[in-house]
Specification:
Layout: E1 6-10, E2 17-18, E3 34-37, H1 39-45, E4 83-85, H2 87-93, E5 98-102, H3 112-125, E6 130-134, H4 138-149, E7 153-159, H5 164-172, E8 176-180, H6 184-198, E9 201-202, H7 211-215, H8 217-225, E10 233-237, H9 242-257, E11 266-272, H10 277-283, H11 310-319, E12 323-327, H12 329-343, H13 349-363, E13 373-377
Parallel strand pairs: 5-13, 6-7, 6-9, 7-8, 10-11, 10-13, 11-12
Antiparallel strand pairs: 1-2, 1-3, 4-5
Helix pairs in contact: 3-4, 4-5, 8-9, 12-13
Length: 403
């Protein structure tokens, strides 16, 4: 049996096809490329029951991933993160079947490790020796560390306001790290120029086809962890949108394999009020978003003024009868505190936004009674040490605590 059943790359806009055995970036029409698998052949040789007993990482799904030779796999044990019941938070929201997919315990501390693991592994297979990318922080941290493990040099450009921890992760990996006084869009322009001048491989969001494949394993895991019964709603914090695109792709592939039945979950793209181009486009019924000027939010990871794959995000929402929600910073930060105090879960601001969105959608009646709702926490809260501000009393030596 093949290690991978990848067949080709294709353009979702103009339908051009490309070989997965060659280096590819965007289609000539400017669209991101997607990976296609021979699901008919795979369905003949692999059943969902055969996954039982496999390694508890995302590589348990290797037939649905793009790496053809196992020797090229670059891994730190990523994947198979817990799907946790949140009964106290669910009761507080009147969502009794509330679950959290917790990506905070993954290597490098965020879901970005999934895309980095698969993207770097395929880059290694294609003989790529140096890559470059812009980042809001966590993706750059993940890709620089995985690149180091795979023997690939990385060049990372991030906004000067990116969390210091992610900066340190990139720096300690030996990456060529640069800071820019601006947004991720400004970092992207610098990377594009660098790629052209020095011939580096562009690992920017959706400018290579394989990051999505790593991210889609969140969808595969959710399905398997729920014993192949799909939830009613999945909420995802959306900046570049690769996660929600990947989850939609995963669930679509599972349907074609016949491993799941019924309607796909309604997908919810959650953004911050200070940067909500997808929300605005969805509210206006558009297929693409417009650049969001002067964007600003405490949820730094979703501060993306214009996503290159916005049309894919919006299509996933429309196809699943989902929606898009913008959350105010003060609301998501309050939700972050509530999650920690009620459930002991210290989630990242982006993850907190998904819970705030679930609460709002339940209040509005969009989430119905007894629906199974999965909120994605995309990273650990401790990666954002400056987000939380607390006043802690200081005791003198020998001083008693008074209640």
């Amino acid at each position: 049996m093949n290690y991978s059943y990848i067949s080709q790359l294709y353009c979702p806009k103009c339908s051009n096809t490309f070989s997965h055995q060659q280096k590819n970036q965007l289609c000539s029409c400017g669209s991101p490329l997607l990976v296609e698998y021979d699901l008919e052949e795979l369905g003949k040789v692999l059943s969902k029951q055969a996954l039982t007993g496999r390694v508890p990482s995302l590589w348990r799904y290797h037939e649905l991933l793009p790496v053809c030779d196992e020797k090229n796999v670059v891994t730190l044990g990523e994947g198979m993160t817990p799907l946790l019941s949140m009964p106290v938070m669910g009761a507080d929201m009147n969502i009794p079947n509330l679950l959290m997919k917790d990506e905070g315990i993954i290597p490098t501390g965020t879901f970005k490790a999934r895309g980095a693991a698969v993207g770097v592994s395929k880059a290694k297979e294609l003989g790529i020796t140096e890559l470059a990318m812009p980042t809001n922080g966590n993706a750059g941290a993940a890709w620089s560390l995985y690149a180091a493990r795979g023997g690939i040099q990385s060049t990372i450009v991030m906004p000067i306001d990116a969390p210091k921890i992610t900066r340190n992760e990139s720096a300690i990996s030996g990456s060529n790290l640069y800071l820019v006084d601006g947004l991720i869009s400004d970092a992207g322009k610098i990377v594009s120029q660098t790629v052209q001048e020095f011939g580096l491989f562009d690992a920017s969001t959706l400018k290579e086809p394989y990051r999505i494949e790593g991210k889609k394993t969140m969808g595969l895991e959710i399905a398997e962890q729920l014993e192949w019964k799909l939830p009613d709603v999945i909420l995802y914090p959306t900046g570049g949108g690769v996660g929600i695109i990947g989850i939609f792709k995963a669930l679509t592939e599972l349907k074609k394999l016949g491993w799941v039945e019924g309607n796909l979950p309604r997908l919810v793209a959650v953004q911050a009020e200070g940067c909500a181009p997808i929300v605005r486009a969805w509210e206006e019924g558009k297929s693409e978003s417009e650049f969001w000027y002067d964007s600003e939010t405490a949820a730094f990871g979703i501060n993306v003024p214009k996503a290159i794959g916005d049309f894919l995000v919006l299509d996933a929402i429309y196809q699943t009868n989902g929606c898009a929600v913008a959350i105010e910073d003060d609301v998501l930060l309050e939700e972050q505190k509530k999650l920690a105090s009620l459930e002991g879960a210290f989630v990242c601001p982006e993850g907190a936004a998904t819970f705030a969105a679930a609460r709002r959608l339940r209040e509005q009646g969009w989430i119905k009674d007894n629906e199974v709702v999965v909120a994605l926490n995309t990273g650990m809260g401790i990666k954002y040490p400056d987000t939380i501000s607390v006043d802690v009393p200081v005791l003198e030596k020998g001083e008693a605590i008074l209640k």
